[in-house]
Amino acid sequence: MARAGADLAERIQKALDDPVLQKAMRNAMATLYQRRTAAWSGDVDLEDLRARARALKEEAIARNDELLDLLEERVSERSGHLYRAATAADATAYIADLARARGVRTVVKSKSMTSEEVHLNAALEAAGVEVLETDLGERIIQLAGERPSHLVVPAIHKTKEDVIRLFAETMKIADPPTEAEGLTRLVREDLRARFLEAEMGVTGANFVVAETGTLVLVENEGNIRLTSQLPPIHVALVGREKIIPRLADLAVYLELLPRSGTGQLLTSYVSLITGTPSTDLLDFGGAGERPREREFHLVVLDNGRSAAARDPELREALYCIRCGACLNACAPYRLVGGHVYGGDPYPGGIGCAWTYLTQGAEEAKQTNGLCTTCARCTEVCPTKVDIPWLNTVIKERLNRKLGVGLRERVFARTDLLGRAGGALAPVANKVGGSAPAARALERMGIDGGRQLPTYARRSLEAWFSARPEADKAAIRAAGPTPTATSSAERTAAGAPRVALFVDCFVNHNLPQVGQAAVRVFEAAGVQVVLAHNSCCGRPAVSQGILGLPRGWAVTNLEELARLIGQGCDVVCLEPSCLSMLREDYRRLLEATDLADDRRIDLIEEHSYDVSEYLLLMRSRGALHLPLAHLDDTFVVHGHCHQKSLGLGSVPVDLLRLIPGASVVEVEALCCGLVGSFGYKKEYAALSTAIGGQLFEKLTAHEGTIIASGISCRSQIQLGTGRPVLHPVEALAAALLV
Amino acid sequence: MTARPPILQRFIEAARGVGACVETTSPAALPEVVAGLLPARGLVLVAPEIADLADSLSTRDVEARVALESSQAHESLSRAFRRAVAGVTPTLVAVASSGTVAVGPSGRNGGLLAALPPQHVAIVHERDIRDSLAEALPVVVERSAGSEGEAVLITGPSRTADIEMMSVLGVHGPLRLDIVVVLED
Ligand code: SF4
Ligand code: SF4
Fold first, then answer.
1. A633-733: which CATH topology?
2. Can you tell me the mean pLDDT for B148-157?
3. Checking CA distances to A329, which of A205, A519, B178, B184 falls within 20 to 30 Å?
4. How many Cβ atoms are within 10 Å of A38's Cβ, its own excluded?
């Protein structure tokens, strides 16, 4: 474990120190991300399409066995051959044997991650067959003797200069073209002759339609069309999760896939291939005897997929349509690129799940840690794959298999740390910053250069219960109700009531945030109570520890449902807690007898982010705060979980309520700390680098930095040396009462 | 409030937006317009379903032949494909929202005509333009039903962005896509 961690740390450091990689990734990632954002519009309701795509994929995977049978029938009706490959070795053996039997000398290949998964090229080469990758990016990778580093853009880690050098060396060209256009033309000419002489073409497919036996191939270059039509033998290698029931469903996927992947409305070519091509079999005069008959072989690969389809927690991964959008939104991926993941060949957060189900636990171990579970990718995934939850589940399974480290156990118990740290605050804070403590931390695998959170002497709970009764009673008459179904309507008293969810960090480290929220609500005439909740479970869940938080979730269901029943709405200060309540409790309890508990819905419906709740009150005409005019500028960092909850704009909108204030939102991905990620030694450098990009953008503006997350706050304070406030603290500071 | 542009206009704009060249013509002027888009010299291969267009092009000094093995005894089709400068095909349907044209498998070698030569000329009938992909897909399915092979949705010329995300037209497919819309009389 320690050794693997050290290897990973080295690989991360190497990637971070590689100026060529950094330049290539920075440009490409920004471009892809912007193109996807720009394409996320049009006459169609894309959010509705995402929901439909998700439902269609769920159906397709649930019916996978039956659809495969139907597909087999359709393919053989059209004189094609369908081969069921149980393992990678089965798939490569079938294709290599076929090539040998037909006397194939040259195979042209289009880009296929599935063929990378089974190492098809190596198998064909071992059988004496020459394999030519024909996608430009794949060809670059092949000439360089590397592996793809992105699902859609395989050579994304290379710069133009790299490609010029590579072509000069491998194609023996003294004076290679210097522009992308010339380099592209060079490959066109080089490969055209090879297309004409190849006896076999190997493609993948994006979808395979069971009812018609149609292969659907999505591409831009036109190499897939030549690969599938020119050679006499066409072999398509596809994972069995690619089978969809109906051709009619294709429109939904085609609206989403190119938009998500490359930001195009549609790629240059979408081929629908049914049966063997009707084109004449042209003999362009290759070296020897060519097969005289057209043949079509569909190799359907299992390699762990059907086991995943039966596994309610891993099934999710099979909904992936390989668009790559999640990679482009992922801060760790964007900084280190695909090769650092070591998942072969699937990179990024989704790649971890694919590595786990196709290659096993050992291989997935390292990749798994690189997913911070920040959830930024869930905003962009066209089939709403819950990548952070997949990685959480995998982390738990790895823990069970390989044991949970001391470090992970410590990070899981922010509740206990808080209680102990608070009691010993003066001592704990000193020890936390001392040299012997740093060494002890290093031994646990915690980055010694990090400041651990400091503890407040008096917790939020202690402060709240010690307040004079007069304060608590000094609540103005209530305004109209914040939401139609919310508290006030359900209570006879008529006053809206808020139950603050007490999160461990606010309670023990930053009670001032909770105090500010209490002040704001009370100034608005809202009565506040503190929930007697347990930890939301987020810190433990992010260590892959699920047993403990399941227990806490049960207590919290009990307590929060009680409060809601009494007419309260639940308000969270930390978006990561809210995303547990609103999204992850359902998943956490999926496999328990509480799976269908109504209280899960109740809590989803009645839990809010503090900024969201105040804005909701305002939109109902119920928020009347006496606010001072401030000439301040607020520079806002968006919280990952807040964004994944669809609440990205609430802090900005809330701050705009302060008269005279100007608000700037910086466009960045993640702070890089994400709970405990940045504290772990092997990820410390990466965490700092991710943060670095954010700090650059934040410090470009004067003003007060605002962050809703407690861990974002400490990361930004450390990185910029500037104080950071929660939006509700900024609002409280503007209160005239 | 601007009125929604007519479907033809939206199709033309979208197709130009993805790098295609678009012309409109009356049915009678079609051969003239197609001839005007072709290079001065070189063989032009025409899909079998529109064989008469090959004849009309031939009368206009264009070296044109139908893309069938049997159509010309003195030169094999593979040799013809090797030297063809353009392929001309009919289309099944077109999509206004994305500027897409669909070429069906029904005419033999239609797919290769739209893949191998450096230029592809696609003939679209105005009445075959649909608003969205969702409306066009069933038409593709219906009109290519029963025939084996490839139906292809084509949106602009062949392209790549594999080197530093720089957009380059013309990788393995046609470098140039011309769409000729035949207007209703
Ligand atoms: S959850 Fe965050 S770190 Fe993990 S894959 Fe998604 S974006 Fe990347
Ligand atoms: S997980 Fe979603 S976003 Fe990522 S590649 Fe798959 S479909 Fe695309």
1. Rossmann fold (3.40.50)
2. 91
3. A205
4. 10
